[in-house]
Amino acid sequence: MPRQESRTVPPGQRLVPDMPVQHYGRVPTLDRHTWTLTLAGETEGEARVVTWEDLQELPQVTLLADQHCVSKLTQQDVEWTGVLVRDVVELAPPRSGIEHTLVSAEYGYSSSVGLADLLSPRSLLATHRQGEPLSAERGGPVRLVLPHLYGFKGPKWVREIAYVPAPVRGFWEQRGYHLVADVWRQERYAYQ
Ligand SMILES: Nc1nc2c(c(=O)[nH]1)N[C@H]1C(S)=C(S)[C@@H](COP(=O)(O)O)O[C@H]1N2
Ligand SMILES: [Mo]
User: Fold this and answer.
1) What is the structure's pLDDT at 177?
2) Domain 33-185, second-level architecture
3) What is the structure's pLDDT at 80?
4) Does residue 116's CB lie within 6 angstroms of at least one atom of ligand 1?
5) Does residue 105 line the site of ligand 1, with CB under 6 A?
6) Residue ranges per domain, the chain?
């Protein structure tokens, strides 16, 4: 299984054996067979609605990645299974020149993610955590996992990726958190 590039703990983070479940608001109950992910905004061609069955047809990838919360907790070597975001974006790519996305979840949570970060080689639309299908509280049926960014960039219960011409602030970015949020650069707050 591909291991993470580095065993180092990012600056300012503290290791925990099990990342607590953390999110704002209620846990939605979604049925994987009616769940959809819409690729929208500034697409090159038509927008596209991606289903659970569409995900099953893509290569299934398992990798180990650390899970970091901007509140300074890190769990190392979490095993995630899902499909590469790259493979999904291929189904309805952005028009040329687009560099930003807004990723949205059920119940209105959202995060601002640069297209390059979204397409990084280890970015997953995850369906499993630690070998088990994602529970509702862990973001099932599908959540976004961006291993090099703080956890708030990865919506649980993800429902839409919108390609946008300029950064659009999501839930935490509207509350002062960083637009990029690279854990290795310790990009926690917008004012840094
Ligand atoms: N839909 C949604 N996704 C979310 C959040 C949220 O509030 N709502 N919180 C984020 C934050 S801040 C973190 S640290 C991780 C927590 O993931 P976990 O519950 O698996 O620990 O989920 C992220 N995804
Ligand atoms: Mo977080």
Assistant:
1) 98
2) Alpha-Beta Complex (3.90)
3) 98
4) no
5) yes
6) 33-185
